[in-house]
Amino acid sequence: MKNTSVTKIRINEPCNGAERRHPDLSVLLRELPPFVARNHPRFKELTGYSGRTFANLDCLKQTAGIKRIMLGNTVAYERESLISWLESRSRIIS
Fold it and tell me: What torsion do the CA atoms of 61, 89, 42, 75 make, to the nearest 10 degrees?
C-alpha cells in the first residue's frame, strides 16, 4: 500500500518564528554619513552589497523604499531609509 498522506510545502514561508525576525542594524546610524554614495569606500563592508549591485537593483526597481539623491554624477542614499531597507531584506537564521 502506498502512503497517501502528503505534506504541503509552503514556498517562501519560513519554517519557524525565528526566521521571521529581522536584525537590528541601528548601529549603522553611527557609522554612515547622512547620505551614502554608491562609491563610498566602505559601502560594501557596511551594507553587504556592492555599489554596482545597488545600481542593478535600482534599475530593476527593487530599491523603491530608499530615498536617493544625485551628488554630482553619483547616486547617494539617505541613511535611515537605506538601513530600514537593509533590515527588511535580512533575517536572523539561528
Answer: 20
1's grid cell: 500500500
The rounded distance, in Å, linking the Cα atoms of 59 and 33 is 24
Q: From the options 3.10.450, 1.10.10, 3.30.70, 1.10.1060, give the CATH code of 17-89.
A: 1.10.10
Q: What is the pLDDT of residues 34-77, one digit of tens each?
A: 999 999 999 999 899 999 999 999 999 999 899 999 999 999 99
**For the whole model, what pTM was predicted?**
0.71
pLDDT, mean of residues 1-8: 50
How far apart, in whole angstroms, are the C-alpha atoms of residue 51 and residue 44?
7
Report the sign of the C-alpha dihedral through residues 64, 85, 71, 52, in that order.
negative
Q: Which of 73, 13, 69, 25 is nearest to 49 (CA)?
A: 25
